[in-house]
Amino acid sequence: MYSRIAGTGSYLPEKVLTNHDLEKMFDTSDEWIRERTGIGQRHIAAEGQTTVDLGLEAARRAMAAAGVAPEDLDLIVFGTTTPDQVFPNCGTLLQERLGGHSFPAMGVEAACSGFIYALSIADKFVRLGDAKCALVVGAETLSRIVDWTDRGTAILFGDGAGAVVLKATEEPGIISTHLRSDGAYKDLLYCPVGPSKGFAPDASGRTPMFIHMAGNEVFKIAVKSLGSIVDETLAANGLDKSAIDWLVPHQANIRIIQATAKKLDIPLERVILTVHEHGNTSAASVPLALDAGVRSGQIKRGDLLLLEAFGGGFTWGSALIRY
Ligand code: UT7
What SS3 class is residue 15? Predict the structure, then answer.
Protein backbone atom coordinates (compact mmCIF):
# COMPACT_ATOMS: atom_id res chain seq x y z
CA MET A 1 0.00 0.00 0.00
CA TYR A 2 1.19 3.50 -0.87
CA SER A 3 -0.17 7.03 -0.68
CA ARG A 4 -0.49 9.36 -3.64
CA ILE A 5 -1.26 13.07 -3.92
CA ALA A 6 -4.87 13.34 -5.08
CA GLY A 7 -5.09 17.16 -4.93
CA THR A 8 -3.15 20.27 -3.92
CA GLY A 9 -4.21 23.71 -2.68
CA SER A 10 -2.70 26.88 -1.31
CA TYR A 11 -3.60 30.27 0.05
CA LEU A 12 -1.77 33.57 0.50
CA PRO A 13 -3.25 36.42 2.58
CA GLU A 14 -4.31 39.52 0.66
CA LYS A 15 -1.94 42.05 2.23
CA VAL A 16 1.40 42.35 0.44
CA LEU A 17 4.54 43.89 1.97
CA THR A 18 7.05 44.78 -0.74
CA ASN A 19 10.79 45.34 -0.43
CA HIS A 20 10.07 49.03 -1.02
CA ASP A 21 7.75 49.01 2.02
CA LEU A 22 10.65 47.55 4.07
CA GLU A 23 12.97 50.33 2.84
CA LYS A 24 10.76 52.71 4.85
CA MET A 25 11.06 50.58 8.01
CA PHE A 26 14.86 50.08 8.27
CA ASP A 27 18.11 50.51 6.37
CA THR A 28 17.81 48.12 3.42
CA SER A 29 17.11 48.21 -0.32
CA ASP A 30 15.02 46.33 -2.85
CA GLU A 31 18.22 45.68 -4.80
CA TRP A 32 20.04 44.12 -1.79
CA ILE A 33 17.10 41.90 -0.85
CA ARG A 34 16.56 40.66 -4.42
CA GLU A 35 20.25 40.03 -4.98
CA ARG A 36 20.88 38.17 -1.67
CA THR A 37 17.57 36.32 -1.34
CA GLY A 38 15.50 36.51 -4.57
CA ILE A 39 12.54 37.81 -2.55
CA GLY A 40 10.42 40.63 -4.01
CA GLN A 41 7.51 40.66 -1.57
CA ARG A 42 5.82 38.72 1.21
CA HIS A 43 2.15 38.28 2.22
CA ILE A 44 0.99 39.22 5.72
CA ALA A 45 -2.08 37.83 7.52
CA ALA A 46 -4.77 40.38 8.39
CA GLU A 47 -5.34 41.27 12.03
CA GLY A 48 -7.22 38.39 13.63
CA GLN A 49 -6.49 36.03 10.72
CA THR A 50 -4.83 32.94 12.18
CA THR A 51 -2.73 30.03 10.95
CA VAL A 52 -5.81 27.77 10.95
CA ASP A 53 -7.74 30.38 8.90
CA LEU A 54 -5.00 30.23 6.24
CA GLY A 55 -4.78 26.43 6.47
CA LEU A 56 -8.55 26.13 6.04
CA GLU A 57 -8.47 28.00 2.70
CA ALA A 58 -5.60 25.86 1.40
CA ALA A 59 -7.31 22.67 2.65
CA ARG A 60 -10.60 23.53 0.93
CA ARG A 61 -8.76 24.08 -2.37
CA ALA A 62 -6.81 20.82 -2.05
CA MET A 63 -9.99 18.91 -1.18
CA ALA A 64 -11.85 20.43 -4.14
CA ALA A 65 -8.97 19.46 -6.45
CA ALA A 66 -9.04 15.90 -5.05
CA GLY A 67 -12.85 15.67 -5.18
CA VAL A 68 -12.92 14.91 -1.46
CA ALA A 69 -15.56 15.95 1.12
CA PRO A 70 -14.82 16.45 4.84
CA GLU A 71 -16.58 13.14 5.66
CA ASP A 72 -14.08 11.30 3.40
CA LEU A 73 -11.10 12.34 5.56
CA ASP A 74 -9.72 9.99 8.18
CA LEU A 75 -6.55 11.87 9.21
CA ILE A 76 -5.24 15.46 9.44
CA VAL A 77 -1.56 16.26 9.99
CA PHE A 78 -0.89 19.99 10.30
CA GLY A 79 2.69 21.32 10.18
CA THR A 80 3.24 24.72 11.77
CA THR A 81 5.56 26.66 14.07
CA THR A 82 3.01 29.41 14.68
CA PRO A 83 -0.07 27.61 16.04
CA ASP A 84 -3.26 29.54 16.86
CA GLN A 85 -3.00 28.51 20.52
CA VAL A 86 -1.05 26.05 22.71
CA PHE A 87 -3.90 23.54 22.42
CA PRO A 88 -6.05 22.16 20.88
CA ASN A 89 -3.54 21.55 18.10
CA CYS A 90 -4.08 23.18 14.69
CA GLY A 91 -5.04 19.83 13.10
CA THR A 92 -7.89 19.42 15.55
CA LEU A 93 -8.95 23.06 15.16
CA LEU A 94 -8.99 22.58 11.39
CA GLN A 95 -10.98 19.34 11.76
CA GLU A 96 -13.66 21.28 13.67
CA ARG A 97 -13.75 24.03 11.02
CA LEU A 98 -14.21 21.43 8.29
CA GLY A 99 -16.99 19.73 10.25
CA GLY A 100 -15.04 16.49 10.78
CA HIS A 101 -15.37 14.27 13.84
CA SER A 102 -13.45 11.63 15.79
CA PHE A 103 -10.65 10.70 13.33
CA PRO A 104 -7.08 11.55 14.45
CA ALA A 105 -5.81 15.09 13.88
CA MET A 106 -2.46 16.41 15.03
CA GLY A 107 -0.01 19.28 14.86
CA VAL A 108 3.65 18.81 13.94
CA GLU A 109 6.30 21.38 14.84
CA ALA A 110 9.49 21.04 12.81
CA ALA A 111 9.98 24.70 11.77
CA CYS A 112 10.50 25.06 7.99
CA SER A 113 10.54 21.26 7.57
CA GLY A 114 7.06 21.03 9.11
CA PHE A 115 5.29 20.06 5.88
CA ILE A 116 7.84 17.39 4.92
CA TYR A 117 7.56 15.94 8.44
CA ALA A 118 3.73 16.07 8.28
CA LEU A 119 3.73 14.44 4.83
CA SER A 120 6.04 11.68 6.01
CA ILE A 121 3.85 10.94 9.05
CA ALA A 122 0.62 10.90 7.00
CA ASP A 123 2.28 8.67 4.37
CA LYS A 124 3.18 6.15 7.08
CA PHE A 125 -0.42 6.07 8.38
CA VAL A 126 -1.61 5.33 4.84
CA ARG A 127 1.07 2.69 4.16
CA LEU A 128 0.19 0.90 7.40
CA GLY A 129 -3.49 0.89 6.49
CA ASP A 130 -4.46 3.28 9.32
CA ALA A 131 -5.72 6.00 6.94
CA LYS A 132 -7.15 6.03 3.44
CA CYS A 133 -7.68 9.74 2.88
CA ALA A 134 -5.37 12.13 4.71
CA LEU A 135 -5.21 15.92 4.68
CA VAL A 136 -1.68 17.30 5.11
CA VAL A 137 -1.26 21.02 5.74
CA GLY A 138 1.66 23.41 6.14
CA ALA A 139 0.60 26.88 7.30
CA GLU A 140 2.20 29.79 9.13
CA THR A 141 1.64 33.30 10.42
CA LEU A 142 5.35 33.93 10.85
CA SER A 143 4.81 37.70 10.66
CA ARG A 144 3.62 37.44 14.29
CA ILE A 145 7.09 36.31 15.48
CA VAL A 146 9.25 38.49 13.20
CA ASP A 147 11.20 41.33 14.80
CA TRP A 148 10.19 44.10 12.40
CA THR A 149 13.20 46.19 13.49
CA ASP A 150 15.75 43.49 12.54
CA ARG A 151 16.76 43.74 8.88
CA GLY A 152 18.64 40.43 9.10
CA THR A 153 15.39 38.45 9.53
CA ALA A 154 12.42 40.75 8.68
CA ILE A 155 13.24 40.74 4.97
CA LEU A 156 12.90 36.96 4.74
CA PHE A 157 9.66 35.76 6.25
CA GLY A 158 5.97 35.82 5.30
CA ASP A 159 2.60 34.15 5.91
CA GLY A 160 0.78 31.52 3.85
CA ALA A 161 -0.59 28.00 3.65
CA GLY A 162 -0.45 24.94 1.43
CA ALA A 163 -2.14 21.55 1.59
CA VAL A 164 -2.36 18.17 -0.11
CA VAL A 165 -4.85 15.32 0.06
CA LEU A 166 -3.26 11.86 0.17
CA LYS A 167 -5.23 8.82 -0.93
CA ALA A 168 -4.37 5.15 -0.50
CA THR A 169 -3.27 3.47 -3.72
CA GLU A 170 -1.51 0.33 -4.89
CA GLU A 171 1.23 2.18 -6.79
CA PRO A 172 3.41 5.02 -5.49
CA GLY A 173 2.70 7.91 -5.00
CA ILE A 174 5.06 8.88 -2.33
CA ILE A 175 8.07 6.69 -2.98
CA SER A 176 10.18 7.60 0.05
CA THR A 177 10.59 10.30 2.66
CA HIS A 178 13.79 11.13 4.57
CA LEU A 179 13.77 13.12 7.81
CA ARG A 180 16.72 14.54 9.74
CA SER A 181 17.14 16.62 12.89
CA ASP A 182 20.12 17.90 14.88
CA GLY A 183 19.63 19.93 18.06
CA ALA A 184 23.33 20.76 18.23
CA TYR A 185 22.37 23.74 16.05
CA LYS A 186 19.53 24.96 18.31
CA ASP A 187 21.20 28.34 18.89
CA LEU A 188 21.56 29.31 15.21
CA LEU A 189 17.83 29.68 14.43
CA TYR A 190 15.22 29.83 17.17
CA CYS A 191 12.39 31.63 18.95
CA PRO A 192 13.40 31.72 22.62
CA VAL A 193 10.07 31.79 24.49
CA GLY A 194 7.29 29.33 25.27
CA PRO A 195 4.77 28.28 27.92
CA SER A 196 7.31 26.22 29.84
CA LYS A 197 10.35 28.48 29.59
CA GLY A 198 8.23 31.59 30.06
CA PHE A 199 7.73 34.93 28.30
CA ALA A 200 9.94 37.15 30.45
CA PRO A 201 10.97 40.48 28.85
CA ASP A 202 14.60 40.76 27.70
CA ALA A 203 17.11 43.46 28.74
CA SER A 204 15.41 45.96 26.39
CA GLY A 205 12.05 45.36 28.12
CA ARG A 206 10.48 43.58 25.12
CA THR A 207 9.05 40.07 25.27
CA PRO A 208 11.47 38.37 22.86
CA MET A 209 8.83 36.40 20.94
CA PHE A 210 10.99 36.79 17.84
CA ILE A 211 12.91 34.71 15.34
CA HIS A 212 16.65 34.89 16.05
CA MET A 213 18.97 33.75 13.29
CA ALA A 214 22.67 33.60 12.52
CA GLY A 215 21.88 33.99 8.81
CA ASN A 216 25.27 33.32 7.31
CA GLU A 217 25.90 30.13 9.31
CA VAL A 218 22.36 28.88 8.66
CA PHE A 219 22.93 29.49 4.96
CA LYS A 220 26.09 27.39 4.79
CA ILE A 221 24.69 24.44 6.78
CA ALA A 222 21.42 24.55 4.79
CA VAL A 223 23.32 24.21 1.49
CA LYS A 224 25.39 21.30 2.84
CA SER A 225 22.47 19.47 4.50
CA LEU A 226 20.16 19.80 1.50
CA GLY A 227 22.95 18.62 -0.79
CA SER A 228 23.41 15.46 1.28
CA ILE A 229 19.68 14.74 1.73
CA VAL A 230 19.06 14.85 -2.04
CA ASP A 231 22.03 12.48 -2.56
CA GLU A 232 20.65 10.17 0.13
CA THR A 233 17.18 10.20 -1.45
CA LEU A 234 18.51 9.29 -4.89
CA ALA A 235 20.81 6.59 -3.48
CA ALA A 236 18.01 5.04 -1.37
CA ASN A 237 15.98 4.59 -4.55
CA GLY A 238 18.86 3.61 -6.86
CA LEU A 239 18.16 6.64 -9.05
CA ASP A 240 20.42 8.89 -11.08
CA LYS A 241 19.87 12.64 -10.63
CA SER A 242 18.76 12.85 -14.28
CA ALA A 243 15.56 10.96 -13.30
CA ILE A 244 14.13 13.98 -11.43
CA ASP A 245 11.58 15.96 -13.46
CA TRP A 246 10.97 18.73 -10.90
CA LEU A 247 12.77 19.99 -7.81
CA VAL A 248 10.20 21.50 -5.40
CA PRO A 249 12.42 23.15 -2.79
CA HIS A 250 11.80 25.04 0.43
CA GLN A 251 11.56 28.67 -0.67
CA ALA A 252 14.00 30.30 1.77
CA ASN A 253 16.59 31.95 -0.42
CA ILE A 254 17.16 31.72 -4.19
CA ARG A 255 20.89 31.17 -3.62
CA ILE A 256 20.25 28.10 -1.43
CA ILE A 257 17.85 26.77 -4.10
CA GLN A 258 20.42 27.40 -6.85
CA ALA A 259 23.07 25.49 -4.88
CA THR A 260 20.79 22.43 -4.52
CA ALA A 261 19.77 22.60 -8.20
CA LYS A 262 23.46 22.71 -9.15
CA LYS A 263 24.16 19.66 -7.02
CA LEU A 264 21.39 17.84 -8.92
CA ASP A 265 22.58 19.21 -12.31
CA ILE A 266 19.02 20.37 -12.80
CA PRO A 267 18.45 23.66 -14.67
CA LEU A 268 16.40 26.34 -12.90
CA GLU A 269 13.69 25.79 -15.55
CA ARG A 270 13.02 22.43 -13.83
CA VAL A 271 12.79 24.00 -10.35
CA ILE A 272 9.51 25.38 -8.98
CA LEU A 273 10.31 28.91 -7.83
CA THR A 274 7.90 31.01 -5.78
CA VAL A 275 10.32 32.66 -3.34
CA HIS A 276 10.07 36.03 -5.17
CA GLU A 277 6.30 36.05 -4.55
CA HIS A 278 6.07 35.18 -0.83
CA GLY A 279 9.53 34.80 0.77
CA ASN A 280 10.13 32.15 3.41
CA THR A 281 6.76 30.91 4.71
CA SER A 282 8.37 28.08 6.72
CA ALA A 283 6.11 24.98 6.80
CA ALA A 284 3.86 26.49 4.09
CA SER A 285 6.69 26.97 1.64
CA VAL A 286 6.94 23.53 -0.03
CA PRO A 287 3.18 22.92 -0.44
CA LEU A 288 2.76 26.50 -1.76
CA ALA A 289 5.41 25.79 -4.40
CA LEU A 290 3.95 22.37 -5.17
CA ASP A 291 0.49 23.82 -5.71
CA ALA A 292 1.90 26.62 -7.90
CA GLY A 293 3.69 24.02 -10.03
CA VAL A 294 0.57 21.88 -10.40
CA ARG A 295 -1.83 24.74 -11.14
CA SER A 296 0.51 26.38 -13.65
CA GLY A 297 0.58 23.07 -15.58
CA GLN A 298 4.35 22.69 -15.12
CA ILE A 299 4.01 19.57 -12.96
CA LYS A 300 2.08 16.82 -14.74
CA ARG A 301 0.73 13.44 -13.63
CA GLY A 302 3.53 10.87 -13.80
CA ASP A 303 6.35 13.39 -13.18
CA LEU A 304 9.01 12.50 -10.62
CA LEU A 305 9.27 15.21 -7.93
CA LEU A 306 11.92 15.81 -5.31
CA LEU A 307 10.68 17.94 -2.41
CA GLU A 308 13.12 19.23 0.23
CA ALA A 309 13.18 21.59 3.21
CA PHE A 310 15.50 22.87 5.93
CA GLY A 311 14.74 24.85 9.08
CA GLY A 312 15.25 25.65 12.76
CA GLY A 313 16.46 22.85 15.00
CA PHE A 314 18.02 22.11 12.65
CA THR A 315 15.44 19.92 10.97
CA TRP A 316 15.58 18.93 7.33
CA GLY A 317 14.14 16.37 4.99
CA SER A 318 12.99 15.30 1.55
CA ALA A 319 10.26 13.39 -0.25
CA LEU A 320 10.50 11.57 -3.58
CA ILE A 321 7.10 11.52 -5.26
CA ARG A 322 5.64 10.13 -8.47
CA TYR A 323 2.92 12.76 -8.99
O1 UT7 B 1 14.39 28.24 6.31
C2 UT7 B 1 15.71 28.30 6.73
C3 UT7 B 1 15.85 29.55 7.45
N4 UT7 B 1 16.70 30.58 7.02
C5 UT7 B 1 17.40 30.71 5.90
O6 UT7 B 1 17.44 29.89 5.03
C7 UT7 B 1 18.19 31.95 5.79
C8 UT7 B 1 19.62 31.65 5.49
N9 UT7 B 1 20.44 32.88 5.40
C10 UT7 B 1 20.26 33.79 4.44
O11 UT7 B 1 19.37 33.71 3.62
C12 UT7 B 1 21.29 34.92 4.37
O13 UT7 B 1 22.30 34.66 5.30
C14 UT7 B 1 20.68 36.33 4.61
C15 UT7 B 1 19.84 36.74 3.44
C16 UT7 B 1 19.89 36.36 5.91
C17 UT7 B 1 21.82 37.36 4.71
O18 UT7 B 1 22.63 37.32 3.54
P19 UT7 B 1 24.21 37.20 3.63
O20 UT7 B 1 24.71 37.25 2.27
O21 UT7 B 1 24.51 35.98 4.46
O22 UT7 B 1 24.59 38.52 4.39
P23 UT7 B 1 25.43 38.72 5.74
O24 UT7 B 1 24.59 38.38 6.94
O25 UT7 B 1 26.78 38.07 5.60
O26 UT7 B 1 25.63 40.28 5.72
C27 UT7 B 1 26.37 40.94 4.68
C28 UT7 B 1 26.20 42.44 4.84
C29 UT7 B 1 26.45 42.92 6.26
O30 UT7 B 1 27.07 44.18 6.19
P31 UT7 B 1 28.68 44.32 6.40
O32 UT7 B 1 28.96 43.78 7.77
O33 UT7 B 1 29.30 43.49 5.30
O34 UT7 B 1 28.90 45.79 6.25
C35 UT7 B 1 25.04 43.09 6.82
O36 UT7 B 1 25.00 44.06 7.87
O37 UT7 B 1 24.86 42.81 4.53
C38 UT7 B 1 24.30 43.57 5.60
N39 UT7 B 1 22.86 43.32 5.69
C40 UT7 B 1 21.96 44.01 4.99
N41 UT7 B 1 22.07 45.06 4.15
C42 UT7 B 1 20.95 45.54 3.61
C43 UT7 B 1 22.22 42.35 6.39
N44 UT7 B 1 20.88 42.41 6.17
C45 UT7 B 1 20.69 43.45 5.31
C46 UT7 B 1 19.56 44.01 4.71
N47 UT7 B 1 19.72 45.05 3.88
N48 UT7 B 1 18.32 43.55 4.95
Answer: strand
